[in-house]
Amino acid sequence: MEYPQLHFTGQVWRPPYEASSQLLQITSGCTWHKCKFCSLYHGTPFRMSPLSEVEEDLRVISHWQPRARRVYLTGANPFALSYNRLMDIAVLLRKYLPHMVSFGMFARVTDIAPKSVEELKKLRHMKLDSINIGMETAHDPTLEKMNKGYRASDIISQLSKLDEAGIRYNLFYLNGLGGKGCGVESAVATADVVNRLHPCIINIVSLTIFPESSLYQDVIDGKYEEEPEIERLIEMRTLVDRLKIRVNILGHHVSNTVPVTGALPYDKAAVLREFDKAMAQFSEAELKDYRNGIWHL
Ligand code: SF4
User: Fold this and answer.
1) Within a domain: residue 132?
2) Which Pfam family is one of this chain's hits (predicted)?
3) Mind listing the pLDDT tens digit for each residue in 89-116?
4) Does ligand 1 lie within 6 Å of residue 143's CB atom?
5) Is residue 21 part of a domain?
6) In this structure, how many other beta carbons lie within 10 angstroms of the beta carbon of residue 207?
């Protein structure tokens, strides 16, 4: 029997907590493609899937997963699509998957800007209940150095719109991004911003530089010095310690030398203890050795 193929192209990423979600490609690659540290969508130009292609995939999915309850739309930042386009896709999702309870996707901070709170509320009404945002840090000098294309003030203004519209959001924090000597500054600036918002999850990932990124060349040219591993632990500890909001910390990504998870504020003391224990137990060389063994995320 021949199985029909879905239209996945390029790299497909999804957060770990979307493991049971039905994946559907509506874009591939990234609209921005300029962050210095990024190698995730290397070689994949941005492409918006034609609606006919999305509908074809939905026909296949409705045959094999007719009772799918959660759909995750793939691509680096499908939320870059216009409000009207996202509404068209939401209508198709409802038509083909009547049991769907919610859908989500990745977004850049800047993707929220063209959408009004009213439009965001309408998307929420159409079952868009959460988005995942690669914030990385809210430390302005680091955001600029890494060419993220937004500032801390944009993070506050755009994510506040999601709060108002009732769309949940999860953030990604990139530990070590500031480089040597910037760890604590990055953590303090980020905690200050995040304490004014209401993220559901903060995913902590630790910077691991791969040859496909332009930051790799900066390291070779001596223009960027990587943050030492112990400094990274101090950075993460500072971030967690300074957070005053209720938020889940998910820091068990392969790139983290010390895996931590917990619900703040209840687990704060336990998470901080994990960092203290690791700093007492492991040397810089041991931790670096672990990082050098990471070949892929
Ligand atoms: S980090 Fe995200 S926004 Fe930046 S280039 Fe990579 S995929 Fe695009």
Assistant:
1) yes
2) Radical_SAM
3) 999 999 999 999 999 999 999 999 999 9
4) no
5) yes
6) 20
